[in-house]
Amino acid sequence: MEIFLQQVINGLTLGCVYAVVALGYTMVYGIIQLINFAHGEVVMIGAMVAFSVIGVLMKTGMPPLLVVAAGTVVAVPACMATAWLMERVAYRPLRNAPRLAPLITAIGISIILQHVAMMIWGRSPIAFPQIVKTHTFEIGGALITNVQIAIIVISFTLMGALMFLVYRTKLGVAMRATSQRQDVAGLMGIDINRVISATFVIGAALAAVAGVMIGSYYGQTQYTMGELLGLKAFCAAVLGGIGNLAGAVLGGVLMGLVEALGTGYIGDLTNNWFGSNYRDVFAFIVLILVLVFRPSGLLGERVGDRA
Amino acid sequence: MSVLLSATRISKRFGGVQALSDVEFSIRRGEIYGLIGPNGAGKTTLFNVLTSVYAADDGRFEFDGAPLSGLKPHQVAARGIARTFQNIRLFANLTAIENVMIGRHVRTRAGVFGAMLRTRATRAEEAAIEARAAALLDYVGLAARADDLARQLPYGEQRRLEIARALATEPLLLALDEPAAGMNATETSDLRRLIERIRGDGITVLLIEHDMKLVMGLSDRVLVLDYGRRIAEGPPAQVRTDPKVIEAYLGTGATSATRAHAEPAPAGARPGAVPGAAN
Description:
- The complex is a heterodimer.
- By secondary structure, chain A is mainly alpha-helical.
- Chain A is globular and about 60 Å long.
- In chain A, the strands form two sheets. Chain A has a two-stranded antiparallel sheet.
- Chain A has eleven helices and four strands, in the order H-H-H-H-E-E-E-H-H-H-H-E-H-H-H.
- In chain A, strand 2 and strand 3 form a beta hairpin.
- Chain B is of the alpha/beta class.
- Chain B has two domains: 155 residues, Rossmann fold, CATH 3.40.50.300; 79 residues, no CATH class.
- In chain B, 38% of the residues lie in helices and 22% in strands.
- In chain B, strands 6-7-8-3-9-10 form a six-stranded mixed sheet, sandwiched between helices. A four-stranded antiparallel sheet of chain B has the order 2-1-4-5, covered by helices on one side.
- In chain B, helix 7 links the parallel strand 7 and strand 8.
- In chain B, helix 5 crosses helix 6.
- Chain B is globular, with a radius of gyration of 20 Å.
- The two termini of chain B are 29 Å apart.
């Protein structure tokens, strides 16, 4: 029972990060039907930039929380700029190209960003500074750290803020209108290009925070970290129903739980044939099951001609 | 009355089809200008060229004292041209009031950072947008439906919602593409009153309509297109007796049989009659 509860806590923490990243995938897909495979790399850049800033500031003797906050505050605009640039340079010229062209381009952008990061921060895993002192609390025999609590609280705050932005603000109405009928939105006076840029930039702001959170949680970061994280978050978005914001949140949290519980029990269930080193397969098993049995995802309406 | 919109030698070709050839007209401020013609005459193409959905191959529009060429659709909206669509194109999954709020975009600013940081200016602006959108819904008689999704509205109300959305952009020229299509008699007479009221409020109206009774009754002047060419223009009384117009709608001699099959006679017209003469 303690193992179960412990894995639920771990899964929820991880799931929150997946959800925040999945929102970026789903927003972009919702508005231009592009699977932005470079989104995971935006998360990585967020983590890397925050790492560098924290590394510099921690020597100044500032309070640890302030240092982490400063790292995040720098990472967010850095990621926003990255995403803005990639939309402007790589995706916008392909707006009316066949669906496959921007998809391949996204993979290319992802490789470019990885290698730029490799040139700046090196090939080896970097220890993410653990400057915030960890406190551990016990609930029902399971342990939860202050970092985990912070991740969960921050994630849900961000998700709430995004929902507010999309459903209650002028920009949000414009985003939803553009995703429904891009041509008409233009004729009604919406600057389509600005709305699409805004969608990328907002998704990137979320990704930056996710990068800082995941870096702090695992205590390390590497130029390849965005790849697997991005793929899993993408699976989460598909699980929830891609293009659907609530779906991304639900899919992310479920994906985290599946992964944590699967990893926790796989040894017992297979008589230790498989161990916890198989943790990364669960996301993809879920992806396959979703695509076979409910391709529109849990909250998606219909797939239609979407690839 | 001064000229609001003038078109000079507008041409548009799609592959082998000359959709518009050298169309010329001018619309005066404050008038209701009708645009009629058999199906395929190029009426909607003209709307699409006017609103930059397509670029014209040749010719130019001058609107409110400046040329319109090379603009993006949202810039055309900003210049003061708003339109509705022949086949209703609302944002089906937005509420009625959100649909109208969309139209306010072009008259307001506040971008990404305003939206994310919730500045005072953004909040004030959003409150103003919502108030204005509510007033427009009331104007077209949809105040009670503000929070219903657009796709849940009955057909006639969807048409009026499209008009409210277009009006939200504060247009100088409102272009209506077959607003009465599919409406029953009561809805049509409501629509007629609404269009008259819009003109009364100082907005110039460009009206494509197949309902001859409506378009001939409302318009100050009418332009008739056939096969992408201007064949007549003038006050309704003059246009409806124009031999070329009668020929376009009803055909003459050998062409009459094929044309009559391809093109059902418009409302109010029957063999031997003149469009609109029935009323």
